Amino acid sequence: MIKVTSLQEMNHIENGSLQMHIREKAEAMMQEYQVENMDDIGCFIVLEPEEFTDFPIGEMEFVEMLFLEESMFLHGVRIIDESYGEDIYLPVEVVRC
Predict the structure, then answer these.
(1) E runs forming strands in 10-83
(2) Is the dihedral of CA 21, 85, 11, 51 positive or negative?
(3) DSSP code of 53?
(4) Per-residue b or e along 46-67, where b marks 16 or more CB atoms closer than 10 Å to that residue's CB
(5) Is residue 49 a contact partner of residue 90, using CB atoms and an 8 Å limit?
(6) Which end of the chain is more exposed for a tag (fewer CB within 10 A), N or C?
(7) Confidence (pLDDT) at 82
(8) Nearest to residue 21, comparing CAs of 1, 39, 41, 4?
(9) Average pLDDT per 10 consecutive residues for the chain, totaling 97 residues
(10) CA geometry: angle 92, 14, 27, nearest 5 deg
(11) To 10 degrees, the CA torsion angle through 51, 56, 18, 96?
């Protein structure tokens, strides 16, 4: 699991398309809420495929399938309190027919 709490920590995300997606989303949220740090709005969590039990689907505000280039993720948002949330990404294997 990788927990990203700052723009600098995004470099630890190995999947380039996911890293770019999260960076753009974080920057847009920081601009929208007029904050300088991600700590003021939330964090991003990237799970490993075997960590599927760590994806608390019942606690999510919403869940979606996110398709990025050759990758697919189960993406959900868990609201911790009124000003802080967690975006959680679980890689899902893509089966080609």
Answers:
(1) 42-46, 62-68, 71-81
(2) negative
(3) G
(4) bbeeeeeeebeeeebeeeeeee
(5) yes
(6) C
(7) 84
(8) 4
(9) 93 95 94 88 94 93 93 94 92 73
(10) 95
(11) 70
Contact present, 63 and 56 (Cβ < 8 Å): no
**pLDDT for residue 51:** 94
Task: State the Cα–Cα distance between residues 28 and 33, nearest whole angstrom.
Answer: 9
Residue with tokens 């075997």: 50
Which residues face 43 on adjacent strands? 86
pLDDT reported for residue 93: 79
Instruction: With CA atoms as reference, report the closest residue to 64 among 74, 49, 53, 78.
Output: 74
What is the pLDDT, as a whole number, of residue 96?
61
Q: Bridge partners of 45?
A: 3, 88
Q: How far is CA 77 from CA 10, 23, 81, in A?
A: 18, 16, 12
The answer to whether the beta carbons of residues 85 and 26 sit under 8 Å apart is no
For residue 25, what pLDDT is reported? 94
